[in-house]
Amino acid sequence: MHLFIGKGIRGGVALISHRYAKANTFHLPINDSSLPSSYIIYLDANNLYGWAMSQSLPTHGFSWTNEYVNYIDILDDSDTDYILDLEYPQELHDLHNCYPLAPDKIEVNISECSSYTKSLKV
Known about the structure:
The chain has helices at residues 2-7, 48-53, 115-119.
């Protein structure tokens, strides 16, 4: 079980490299009234790592369960934590290419790299 938990440790993506947003509101000179209104808001979140490191982590009482749990009902300050199986449909991979849902820590073999990556000499 401890190996299972260790395998699930991953870092987070700290940026989105391909920015795209399009507002549609009557406040703008060009808008499409047939589409719903949408707005753009800029948020600058600081100390995400520090905040994450201040959250409690499980230390004991690990067990497996087959119980169905609706994760929406789990309170943020619950005494119980869950590790879950994630199904991530292949058809969403390209759509989420710039910001993957669940990045994975893997070792990439040079044969899996593009010609461009191989030419970087890093």
